[in-house]
Specification:
heterodimer, A: alpha/beta, Transcription Regulator spoIIAA, globular, B: 143 residues, alpha+beta, Heat Shock Protein 90, six-stranded antiparallel sheet
Chain lengths: 115, 143
């Protein structure tokens, strides 16, 4: 697994690629999210459109990112979730917790409109 | 760097280090592909196996690299059974808290067994030969 990170309209967009499954590569993404929050990121979109598989550690990192951002008045939103990931969010009841959007642009727009 | 898995009858064994997780995932995927399983079944089994292998490394063997995790894979037409065994002190699966209740919902950890059980047809826990936890996963092809 690897990831790309960029900023657009004051929002950090992270795009993981491959399998978001437990292991050293996934922990690098975890560290990256923590570091971004530490240096001041408050709005974040995780673009999951290129994620093949996700396990509980992958979900755990999304939850950790969400809670750490909300603790400092920020927000983490998910974009382009696949059917597999949507199923995972539903069975773990995390679909009630995360805001999800069909595209990164929709997620970015939601930060402006507050939706 | 790719980590080497040691061959054992019906499977592989490896030290308790998360650096082996990617190699284990590749092994399971290759074996299931060779056996003719479809993408969705492979995905479900791969996630379940990842959960239990990671638990074996972290919680069973507590990342003690002198202790091995063993993975055995058996397949027959339309079904696969995978056993994951550690050399830890065993655990009581009934005492694992539900990840859906109260403040557990927003915890970073604690969903692995719950997710793994949802993705396969059955999960059985028993004691391994060395006293650790042995988990048996069973998945059949959708009819």
């Amino acid at each position: 697994m690897n990831y790309e990170s960029k900023e657009k309209e004051g929002v950090v967009i992270i795009t993981p690629k491959g399998k978001m499954m437990a292991g050293p590569d996934l922990e690098k993404l975890h560290d990256k999210i923590k570091e971004l929050v530490r240096i001041g990121a408050r709005r974040m979109v995780i673009d999951l459109g290129e994620v093949e598989l996700m396990d509980s550690r992958g979900l755990g990192i999304l939850v950790a990112g969400l809670t750490s951002l909300r603790n400092v008045g920020g927000e983490l939103k998910l974009a382009r979730i696949t059917n597999k990931i949507e199923s995972l969010l539903v069975i773990t009841h995390l679909s009630k917790v995360f805001k999800t959007y069909g595209s990164v642009d929709e997620a970015l727009k939601s930060f402006q409109t507050g939706s | 760097m790719a980590r080497r898995l040691s061959k054992i009858p019906h499977g592989v064994a490896f030290p308790s280090d998360q650096k082996f997780l990617a190699a284990v995932d590749r092994y399971v995927e290759q074996e299931l592909k060779k056996a003719g399983f479809g993408k969705d079944v492979i995905a479900d089994v791969a996630i379940s196996v990842s959960e239990f292998v990671n638990n074996a490394i972290l919680h069973g063997n507590r990342q003690d690299e002198s202790k091995l995790v063993r993975l055995e894979l058996y397949h027959a037409p339309g079904q696969v059974t995978i056993c994951v065994e550690d050399e830890g002190e065993g655990f009581e699966p009934d005492k694992v808290a539900s990840p859906l209740e109260g403040e557990n919902l927003l915890k970073e950890v604690g969903r692995g067994i719950f997710i793994a059980k949802m993705l396969v047809d059955s999960v059985e826990f028993s004691r391994g030969e060395k006293g650790g936890t042995r988990v048996k996963l069973f998945k059949k092809l959708p009819v």
